[in-house]
Amino acid sequence: MHIDDFAKEKYISLATFKKDGSKVATPVWVAREGDRLYVITDAGSGKAKRLRNSSRAQIAPCDMRGNVSGDYVDATATLLDDLGTDRVNTLISRKYGLMARVFGLMGSVRRLVGRGEEQRVGIQITLG
After folding, report:
1. Which of 21, 52, 82, 105 gives 20 to 30 Å between its CA and that of 121?
2. 19, 13, 29, 9: which is closest to 103 by C-alpha?
């Protein structure tokens, strides 16, 4: 698949790797800017923790439940700083509109009621 194909998908499966080499895949929303793909996640999520250890990743098209509909492609995924994460939030909001805002509000409500102080972090994905 080409970057254009992934960018058109509503979800992609982002596979990251544990220290023992085993793969853990998660369905995520995806946005594109230039020759890079971007996703957003909680800073304390498993995928963020794994990416702190290794930028090795794979991506494949999938549905919202993570059922993959194509082959995995090797990629490099890196966590972004606050400025980069703000940019990813903008890209995701543009692509997913109301749904992105609803999920963003849900995170704010969780923080208000003390059920999650989790910050978000952007992930930049480069194919190959």
Report:
1. 21
2. 29
